[in-house]
Structure to design on (924 residues):
């Protein structure tokens, strides 16, 4: 399929059927949505500073997504339209059928020959043919021309503009270039030639736009005389002819490394670089920074003297890149890196002679080697040396030889590359097969200066343990292709044990695959932990175990537990602040942790509590092994913030159950006892604590006999104000809980009597006003003689019912006949309502009327309501509160209320409704 063409301008005859802006001609079949987007994409506004049409800039604009397809357009100013209106323009657009992977880059179409200059005049010619790919040829902006353009500009400017454009592709700030459209076209073409080909086709641009906010592209040109002040907050605005490079954003170092390399090469050689790098790319690379290791890999395999930075980048990248690299390329990169390492460190390519006898004390039984032709003399070195040489007794006077096949030539496993079989001698010399020349330590196999020539010292040239571990993962992924695994593990094991013996840290490795080395190293690690070479200090044990675990050589659990109980636990018990090494051993090794916990649990409880509350206990806080249950329980009790007490109690019960299942020493006899409850809730617990504790209990929990008494204490005491509902929920919960059979007599009495009183209270709340007194009498009869806690809760519920009544006569009769405790509680509740900043005037009016009702009038309780409840409250009210209360009384009571209110407020020196003597005056 070819490219559809679109002509857009203001004309008299077009596809719309009327005069004005419209598509003048088009290739049939273009999606209407694409037409709408192209119309918006090609809007043109000539600069106001230039009146002549031939001076107006040309806008070559491109976007990979205009209505879902790539579109490139050329827009030119065309003066007045047919009606004489100025500002007309003509846009010629090409619509690609889909994403283009080949052909000219969009920026190369500047001033190409196929662009139309004017619309068609004949309506019969409005149907345009597609342009084939060969017809869409590039213009003058080819790579030689842009290469000359780039080299005539400061390298720093080119580098920073390239990075700004690269960032803009990833939705960073768009780049605004202040220059004429031809210069902008040159810049866009140059940047496109430097970018990776696929990314260059993602770069949208417009060589001219009157307002960048309307352009919706990533690189846009504006006229040199434009006022750019308003755009600088949203765009990266730069004038290549006037602004210094520092006016552009500071680049990312990794992206800059790629950009610097591209700018040094220029646009002509950049194409070759991207072509060489393509076999090593994953296809997910986007921004320039993503390409840094890919370009380094291409350089490493192709160059005789790779740069130090390339070696470093490839080392870090290769463990991930092995997933998509060809196995031959990946193996060639591994050997290329090891070549540089061997040349810099003085080692042979395959292995080195076993030498440098070391004492056992460096590791408390460390690595011991032997001289050339000798045998292993130390407890560790002997077995490891035998593993290296492949025999039980080591080399018997003969030099160890190992033949591996490595990629021939600097290009690695590439087409046409030869293979060389090399033999590694104990002395480290590399003897190539017939026909190959010997390379010096500082050169490659062809005698030319090699990688080592750039590595000036071991600190920068020799692979560290992390690099070796990464290469080991690569070799494993390759299945040991070309001898990579064997070569690497020989180097790694020797260096690891040397580092540990010298007091260094544990190198980062992945599990070893050479079985002889694995078996021997595992046995020696266990022997060291068991003390065969003397007691192993914690700092050396940390390093040794870290290396053993990373190497896939974990010691047996018995050795770990013995070390934790015999060596580590006494150190923890004797120290307030454990050493960093002790903390690391406990945190990283469950066997060591179990052994230490079992030994510490045998200490006296006071001593163990003090340890658990401090740094020693913190070591076991997150353990999930039952052996540490006593320590974790004491730790939680000492440090928990008590923000979730039920959760704390539940967790402590589960900790005890874990410890019981594991047979932990020093554990309490029950999963839950009175001491644990008191530790969690504290002394003087209330009904809420007991209720939440009950809900924690599950069938199967081993409960001490005293727990029932602890729960009964919360029921046998009248609850505090506001806790009545919790008390009722507690009693109800106990009545159906399996713990009810373990309650003492006081608790059983509360449960039984509440079950008898509760129905009458429920009936009272559900009764209507007609049977209210009958229900009240039933409650009074049921409550009589019950437990004080039951009686108190019942009276409080009766008061709550009375507070909800609104019938004056009903309330008056109830207040007359109720028990004295109910009457007192009712008065206190009403007083609380009336003492608020916003008093309950409705309740006040109801009590005022009830005190004067015939059922209560003349009764001593009526006077007490007036004197002790209403009068003290009303005397302190504001006049608006009095007025509100008065409005809620019957009209016939108004006069009496006024007199009563005036008497109630006289002690404050004010008249009715707050009127009276002025503030500060005395009443005579």
């Amino acid at each position: 399929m070819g490219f559809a063409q679109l002509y857009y301008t203001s004309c008299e005859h077009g596809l719309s059927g009327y005069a004005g802006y419209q598509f003048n001609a088009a290739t049939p079949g273009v999606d209407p949505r694409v037409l709408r987007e192209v119309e918006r994409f090609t809007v043109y506004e000539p600069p106001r500073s230039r009146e002549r049409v031939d001076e107006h800039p040309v806008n070559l604009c491109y976007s990979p997504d205009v209505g879902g397809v790539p579109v490139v357009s050329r827009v030119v100013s065309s003066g007045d339209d047919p009606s004489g209106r100025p500002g007309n323009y003509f846009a010629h657009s090409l619509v690609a059928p889909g994403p283009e992977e080949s052909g000219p880059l969009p920026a190369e179409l500047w001033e190409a020959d196929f662009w139309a200059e004017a619309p068609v005049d004949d309506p019969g010619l409005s149907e345009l043919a597609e342009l084939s790919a060969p017809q869409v040829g590039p213009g003058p902006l080819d790579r030689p021309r842009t290469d000359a353009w780039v080299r005539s500009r400061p390298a720093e400017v080119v580098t920073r503009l390239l990075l700004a454009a690269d960032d803009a592709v990833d939705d960073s700030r768009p780049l605004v270039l202040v220059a004429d459209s031809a210069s902008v076209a040159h810049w866009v073409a140059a940047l496109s030639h430097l970018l990776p080909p696929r990314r260059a086709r993602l770069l949208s641009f417009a060589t001219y736009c009157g307002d960048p906010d309307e352009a919706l592209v990533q690189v846009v040109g504006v006229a040199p005389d434009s006022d750019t002040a308003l755009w600088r907050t949203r765009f990266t605005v730069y004038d290549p002819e006037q602004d210094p490079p520092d006016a552009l954003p500071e680049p990312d170092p990794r992206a800059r490394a790629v950009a610097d390399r591209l700018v040094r090469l220029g646009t002509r050689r950049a194409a070759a670089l991207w072509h060489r790098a393509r076999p090593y790319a994953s296809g997910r690379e986007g921004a320039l920074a993503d390409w840094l290791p890919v370009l380094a890999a291409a350089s490493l395999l192709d160059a005789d003297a790779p740069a130090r930075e390339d070696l470093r980048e490839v080392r870090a990248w290769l463990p991930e890149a092995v997933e998509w690299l060809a196995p031959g390329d990946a193996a060639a990169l591994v050997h290329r890196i090891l070549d540089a390492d061997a040349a810099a460190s003085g080692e042979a390519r395959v292995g080195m002679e076993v030498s440098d006898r070391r004492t056992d004390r460096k590791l408390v039984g460390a690595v011991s080697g032997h001289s050339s032709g000798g045998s292993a003399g130390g407890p560790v070195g002997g077995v490891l040396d035998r593993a290296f040489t492949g025999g039980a007794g080591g080399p018997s006077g003969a030099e160890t030889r190992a033949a591996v096949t490595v990629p021939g030539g600097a290009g690695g496993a590439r087409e046409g590359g030869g293979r060389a079989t090399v033999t590694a001698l104990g002395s480290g010399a590399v003897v190539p097969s017939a026909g190959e020349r010997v390379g010096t330590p500082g050169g490659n196999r062809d005698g030319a200066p090699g990688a080592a020539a750039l590595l000036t010292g071991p600190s920068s040239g020799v692979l560290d343990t992390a690099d070796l571990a990464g290469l080991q993962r690569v070799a494993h992924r390759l299945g040991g292709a070309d001898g990579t695994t064997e070569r690497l593990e020989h180097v790694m094991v020797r260096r690891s044990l040397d580092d540990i013996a010298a007091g260094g840290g544990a190198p980062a490795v992945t599990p070893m695959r050479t079985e002889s080395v694995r078996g021997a190293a595992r046995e020696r690690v266990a022997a060291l932990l068991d003390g065969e070479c003397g007691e192993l200090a914690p700092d050396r044990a940390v390093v040794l175990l870290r290396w053993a675990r990373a190497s896939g050589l974990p010691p047996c659990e018995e050795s770990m537990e013995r070390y934790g109980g015999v060596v580590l636990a006494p150190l923890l018990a004797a120290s307030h602040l454990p050493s960093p090494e002790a903390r690391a051993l406990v945190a990283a090794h469950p066997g060591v942790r179990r052994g230490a916990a079992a030994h510490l649990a045998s200490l006296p409880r006071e001593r163990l509590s003090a340890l658990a509350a401090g740094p020693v206990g913190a070591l076991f806080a997150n353990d999930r092994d039952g052996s540490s249950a006593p320590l974790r329980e004491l730790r939680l009790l000492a440090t928990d913030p008590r923000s979730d007490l039920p959760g704390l109690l539940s967790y402590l019960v589960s900790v005890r159950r874990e410890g019981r299942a594991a047979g932990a020493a020093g554990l309490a006899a029950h999963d839950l006892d009175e001491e644990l409850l008191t530790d969690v809730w504290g002394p003087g617990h209330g009904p809420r604590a007991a209720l939440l504790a009950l809900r924690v209990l599950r069938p199967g929990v081993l409960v001490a006999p005293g727990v029932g008494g602890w729960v009964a204490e919360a029921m046998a005491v009248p609850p505090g104000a506001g806790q009545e509902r919790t008390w009722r929920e507690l009693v109800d919960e106990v009545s159906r809980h399996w713990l009810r059979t373990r309650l003492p007599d006081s608790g059983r009495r509360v449960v039984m009597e509440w079950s008898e009183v509760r129905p009458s209270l429920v009936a009272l709340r559900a009764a209507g006003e007609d049977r209210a007194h009958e229900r009240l009498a039933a409650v009074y009869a049921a409550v009589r003689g019950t437990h004080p806690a039951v009686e108190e809760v019942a009276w409080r519920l009766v008061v709550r019912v009375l507070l909800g009544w609104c019938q004056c006569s009903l309330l008056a009769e109830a207040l007359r006949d109720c028990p004295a405790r109910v009457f007192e509680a009712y008065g206190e509740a009403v007083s609380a309502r009336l003492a608020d900043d916003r008093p309950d005037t409705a309740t006040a009016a109801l009590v005022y009327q009830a005190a004067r009702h015939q059922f209560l009038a003349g009764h001593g309780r009526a006077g007490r309501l007036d004197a002790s409840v209403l009068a003290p409250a009303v005397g302190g009210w504001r006049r608006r509160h009095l007025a509100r209360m008065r409005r809620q009384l019957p009209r016939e009571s108004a006069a009496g209320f006024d007199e009563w209110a005036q008497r109630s407020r006289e002690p404050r020196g004010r008249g009715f409704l707050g009127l009276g003597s002025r503030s500060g005056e005395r009443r005579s």
